[in-house]
Amino acid sequence: MFLDDGLGGDRDLSSCLKTSQEVKQKLEVLGFLIAHEKCSWFPSQYVKWLGYVWDTKIGKICVSDERIDKAEKAASLILSEIGKGVLLFSARTLASIIGQLISMQIVLGDIVRRNTRFLYDCVQARASWNAPVRITVEAIDELGFWKNSCRTLNLVGVDICSVNLTDMYDIELFCDASDVGFGGYFSTVLDFHSENHEIYGNWFAGEQFESSTWRELETVRRVLNSYDSFLENKTVKVNSDNKNVTHILNVGSKKYKLQKVVTDILNSCSKKNIGLQTNWVPRTENKHADFLSRHTDPDDWSIEKNVFHDLSCTFGPFTVDRFSTHYNAQSSRFNSRIWCPGTEAINAFSQFWGGDTNWLVPPPSLVAMTINKIIKDKAKCMLVIPEWKSAPYWPLLYKDGGFRDFIKEVIYLPRYNIIVKGTGLKLRQNVENVVESSGVGENNVLRSLAGKMALYIVDSKSENTSKKYFAGFNRWKLFINEHGFSDLPAEPVHVALYLTFLIDKHSSPSVLQSAIYSIKWAHELNGYIDPTSNSFIKFLLESCKRRNGKPVDSSDLLVIRDLTMILIAYAGFLRFDELSSLTCRDIKIYEEYMSIFLSHSKTDQYRQGNEILISIGSSQACPLLMYKRYLGLSSLDVDSDHFVFRPIFRSGGTAKLIYKNKKLSYTAARQNIVKRLKMVAPHLNLGLHSLRSGGASAAAKSDVNERCIKRHGRWKSDLSKDGYIADSFDNRISVSKNLGL
């Protein structure tokens, strides 16, 4: 056992001296060998410890001069090179400066994070740690700031009483989970510059549908277990944008699944003497971890089970699968790139391969290392690789017109129905393939933008919409892969057969529409031709509506909510933002009309508010009567500040508003409302703004006073008002009729 980095104190000199001697004696009694030259047993009010100066006389902590000198020298050196016209620096060099500054955060404060953002962006654009990255103007300004201000900020110091134990850690971990996968990375506090300081992986089908809290906790477990040897005897600060994670890691959970993951995390940390601190961060400060969690693994594929079985019967049995995960391992013993349940070891190259019959299906980038490992360990194995004669690894296998002596037999597998794709959409892989085929090579600066491009493409839809489409795509994927065909890109006829299968199961038209939108979304994201535009798909959807469609339930809350939104937006000339932001107390009901107060509006720059009056109607389409009906079904409190129009969930077949006070998103509203409108006007190109325009046009056609229309719609000018009003055919033709020709 080793003890290091201890610090103690007491209220006065005599008490402190007594405490110091007691600690020293106890250590000697316990048998510890004390390095006295590194210890200071006599009390002092000025101590250098862990790179900080602790001055109890004035109650301050400062960074040591040596560390300040080192940071200033590093910044000056880079600025000097920039002055000579150099703008490319290794990512490792910039990360080292960031790490030095972040390690001073206890004293310098949050300004460290705020004023290293652009430097960090430069590092994130790297191809590798040794690759050059271009330093931006903003990052240069940050370097100038730290060169001139680092020492000044340190002179202020920080009060000892304000330093919390949670500020004392060795390394920070940021992690996040999505429906697609998980991701995490370690900060540069300890100059942690290994090529694998980032980690990401995919969920398999069963894990994708676990709760978000389970996925977030499981991410922490996998990242910590993957680096437990590096983190041994260190304190790790775990940053997550899920508040449940930080709470459960501290106090546990009543839910068995969550508690099981937490128990495993704590046991693993205990074995390696890893200290854990938890911290919640807003999503805006966890963007890179979120990006990694959506980064599908391009090497996530395996060989078909029946192919493996045939090869195993002939050349096996294979005792260990060296390159796999828990959801595609061909053997009960397997090695994985990162920690996952059941793995025997992380990093197959750290193991001895001799004495086993190895099943080897390495990623193409690791084939050369794999061949060298086989030769070094004299391993018995089956190696499955692409026949890629121009690859760097081919000369290791083939020379002078024949395969090398250590290869006993060569088998050529069929071209088709051999590979099983992993989970995920493979968006990043497809984007990088397209970028590479366009001529952008590995060392080109543009190549670093491919990952961001994939992230921005995913962000084209809201997170909830992407989750829904991804779940729908996975159902299609499981179905078609089971029958041995490709899910992405897909053949239109295969999609049509899938829809036929759903119709046979008496699925509703909404289920078919969800499947169609999901498959369409996945193909458009990856730049493939949309297989759902085929005429078979359209006819099958219409057939499903006739066969499996159900009459609209006029008492269903979802239907009444949508109709209420349509009628109020139409009668009040409301923009969607105004409609979705309405709270219960904004709407007052009177005998002959309803009053709607808009607390803010696009044209209400001074936030004075606007009142809209909507009269009672004489038909079933009366907004006032429909709103009353909606109140009765939703049980809303009319005096509360809850949003009127919230998302809806179903429980036991009954539709209910979600309990959280969250307004309906634009994407969900558009999907629902346009679907209702298309039922009566299938050939019109409609959107949510059509309600505002349609209401104003109907009022103008009925000869309502122009000034009243303008006020009702909150338009500032006639020009903006007229842009919304569509003139009727009779009014347009009357212009030429009245010319007297």
- Can you tell me the CATH topology of the largest domain? hpI Integrase, Chain A
Tell me what portion of residues adopts beta-strand conformation.
Answer: 5-15%
The chain-level structural class is alpha+beta
Helix content: 40-55%
Strand order of the largest sheet: 9-8-7-10-11
CATH C-level label of the largest domain: Mainly Alpha
Distance between the termini: 107 Å
**CATH architecture descriptor text of the largest domain:** Orthogonal Bundle
Q: How many structurally independent domains?
A: 6
Number of strands: 25
Largest sheet: 5 strands, mixed
How large is the radius of gyration? 33 Å
Average pLDDT taken over every residue: 82
Low-confidence region ranges: 189-195
Describe the structure.
GO terms for molecular function: DNA binding; site-specific DNA-methyltransferase (adenine-specific) activity. Keywords: DNA recombination. The protein has 741 residues and is of the alpha+beta class. The protein folds into six domains: 1-43, no CATH class; 65-162, no CATH class; 169-293, Ribonuclease H-like superfamily/Ribonuclease H (Nucleotidyltransferase, domain 5, 2-Layer Sandwich), CATH 3.30.420; 301-421; 460-548, Tyrosine recombinase, N-terminal domain (DNA polymerase, domain 1, Orthogonal Bundle), CATH 1.10.150; 557-722, Intergrase catalytic core (hpI Integrase, Chain A). The protein contains 30 helices and 25 strands. Strands 9-8-7-10-11 form a five-stranded mixed sheet, with helices on both faces. It has a four-stranded antiparallel sheet with strand order 1-2-3-6. It is globular. The chain starts with 12 loop residues before the first helix and ends with a helix.
